Amino acid sequence: MEVIDNELSSPQRKRPKSDEDEMDIDLSDDLDTTISYYVDMNPISRGAEATILNCKFLGKPAILKQRVSKVYRHPDLDKQLIKQRLISEVRGIAKCKMLGVPVPAIYFVNEYRSEIVLEEIEGCNLREHLLILERTLPPNEYQYSFCEIALHLGKLIAKMHVGGLIHGDLTSANVLLRNGRPDQLYLIDFGLSYQKEVSEDKAVDLYVFERALAALHDGLEKTTFEAIRKGYESINAEHAAIVYKKLEEVRLRGRKRDMIG
Ligand SMILES: Nc1ncnc2c1ncn2[C@@H]1O[C@H](COP(=O)(O)OP(=O)(O)O)[C@@H](O)[C@H]1O
Ligand SMILES: [Mg+2]
Fold first, then answer.
1. What CATH number is given to the structural domain containing 189?
2. What ligand 1 atom has the least distance to the C-alpha of 128?
3. DSSP states of the chain
4. How many domains, in total, are found in the chain?
5. Is-catalytic flag, 169?
6. Are 62 and 155 part of one and the same domain?
7. What's the domain range around 83?
8. Which of 171, 173, 175, 253 is the most exposed place for a label (fewest CB within 10 A)?
9. Which ligand has the minimum distance to the alpha carbon of residue 188?
10. pLDDT value at position 119?
């Protein structure tokens, strides 16, 4: 266990505001008290961009996401990217909360350590869930079981898109099932998210998810994509028609690219 003390780790936090600070989302400014979080040093995930650890925050089980530096990036660019992704993560989660899309609560942001502390969604991610189903169920039941999730997921993605938010990295590892329940889905990992009212970007979001599913989970394609579409359409049919028309173009471009290599 490591104790991270926010006052010690961010000595500059009382510095005067400059123009540059206008961009900052510094939630620590309003806190007079010292905030500590107790970190279990065994990571639950070590991705390309971030390490995810269990922690306790004000007594609650929580998740600490630490963005890590990349030695191959220029240090200035590295700092800028890490900061940008932290800001996007906070903005994306806040926007989803407003739109009624389930996301973990943000408990704390420590911009000096490029860390964010989030509510822990106990359960598993969709990727893990599907791998278990794949191993334990006969193919038709596996498909059926996933269609229920896909329908629900389609609704969440549509709510997010109708609100003009693009996720930027929709994959089965970025969807969580609270307590393993298919009707309690949460979206996570908003570091590449952005606000844009462009149907092409929404279509690419869906396409990235389709490709990620097809690559990882055998035999899910057709019925699953149809279930996602059904859920997506149920939120706003007019909006869905425009996005799915674009998705046809994006899929076609993808197929051409695959053929050319
Ligand atoms: N709030 C959370 N509650 C529970 N597990 C989480 C939470 N956030 C992340 N995880 C777990 O950590 C994994 C990686 O988290 P993510 O935010 O997607 O980081 P990365 O940028 O490395 O992909 C997720 O797939 C999930 O298993
Ligand atoms: Mg992720």
1. 1.10.510.10
2. 27
3. -EEEEHHHH-GGGGSPP-GGGGG---GGGG--S--EEEEEEEEEEE-SSEEEEEEEETTEEEEEEEE---TTS-HHHHHHHHHHHHHHHHHHHHHHHHHT---PPEEEEETTTTEEEEE---EEEHHHHHHHHHHHS-HHHHHHHHHHHHHHHHHHHHHHHHTTEE-S---GGGEEEETT-TT-EEE---TT-EE---HHHHHHHHHHHHHHHHHHSTT-HHHHHHHHHHHHHHH-HHHHHHHHHHHHHHHHHHHHHHHH-
4. 2
5. yes
6. no
7. 2-119
8. 253
9. 1
10. 97
Residues 127 and 115 in one domain: no
Catalytic residue among 24, 29, 169, 189: 169
Ligand 1 atom having least distance to the Cα of 104: 1
93 and 154, same domain (yes or no): no
The domain boundary, picked from 56, 90, 119, lies at 119
- Residue of minimum CA distance from atom 14 in ligand 1: 45
Q: Domain boundary at 65, 92, 119, which? A: 119
pLDDT tens digits along 184-233: 999 999 999 999 999 999 999 999 999 998 888 777 788 889 999 999 99
Ligand 2 center to 19 CA (angstroms): 32
Ligand nearest to the CA of 105: 1
Q: Please state the atom number of ligand 1 nearest to the C-alpha of residue 46.
A: 22
104 shares a domain with 57? yes
Residue 171 has pLDDT above 70, yes or no: yes
Co-location of 149 and 185 in the same domain: yes
Residues 201 and 186 placed together within one structural domain of the fold: yes
